Amino acid sequence: MLKPIHFISIVVALLLCVFLFWKGNIIPPQQPAKVQMTEAPGNNPPVAISFDSLLAATKKKLSPQAQAMVRELEKAATTDDKTAAATAFEELGKLWQQNKFRGIAAHYFAESGKLDNSEKKLNFAAHLFAEELEGEKNPERRQWLAESAIDCYTRSLAINPDNDTVRLDLASVYINGTGQTMQGIQELLTIVKNDPSNLPANMVLGTMAIESGQYDKAIQRGELILKYHKDNWQARLFMAEAYKELGKKEEAIALLNEAKAIKQDPQFSADVDNYIKTF
């Protein structure tokens, strides 16, 4: 049996992960600690590693043949012909990707996208940066990956500001990649301002409100979700937790029972029943 409080806390954390993963976003939260809605003063991010130093170190890991190909493409990329340079950068990206160095590959896909002003290339590069960020432990490399992803997403949104999927991905990098929680929240609020029915953004905002102890805001967010998505059982979970924390146990239990009826999963129902017994 799950220990008291653990069930819904776990579900809330999982929901935050799930909806930050929405449509390809793959940056998980680094720890299950409560989300802080404001950045701590003086908590400066690490300095990003220099790409040139990273490139020099990584080149040594390539085969002599691959190194020769890189040199040839680097030379081709120095042309004043933007189209030719963009092509050379893209080929460099493909070469580095083939050799399993996705961060380096992403840099060159990004350079190609900048020259072409290509939303598609910038998004692809950003996702590669984000994928590398997922498993990177080195603070300086993490900062470089996060800053690079943010730059690509920002440039992409300058081309197409209505792409809510990209804006959600950008919010995720801010929150989970750099710890700039408020900046990420602003991106999420931009999404729901333009589209109040946007489920992923509302779910993240709702779960973050729970994690930060803003229970009234979590309930308001949940009510907004149910206005547009009446059968959403996940929103009922975080709303129930908010009501419980506010001492409104009857409302919490009612929402949990509604979630059980919607989800209709025996194990889920048993876990919810066990949790209710802890009230």
Annotation, overall tally of beta strands: 0
Low-confidence stretches: 1-10, 16-42
Strand content: under 5%
Shape, principal axes of CA atoms: elongated
* Category from helices, strands and their pairing: mainly alpha
- What string, H for helix and E for strand, traces the elements in order? HHHHHHHHHHHHHH
| Structural Rg | 22 Å
Helical coverage, percent range: over 70%
Question: What is the tally of helical segments?
Answer: 14
Query: Largest beta sheet, briefly?
Result: none
How far apart lie the N and C ends? 15 Å
- Average per-residue pLDDT, rounded, comes to 87
Question: What this model shows, in words?
Answer:
This protein is mainly alpha-helical and about 280 residues long. The protein has helices at about 5-20, 50-60, 65-75, 80-100, 100-115, 120-135, 140-160, 165-180, 180-195, 200-210, 215-230, 235-245, 250-265, 265-275. Helix 8 (about 165-180) packs antiparallel against helix 9, helix 10 (about 200-210) runs antiparallel to helix 11 and helix 13 (about 250-265) packs antiparallel against helix 14 (about 265-275). The chain starts with 5 loop residues before the first helix and ends with a helix.
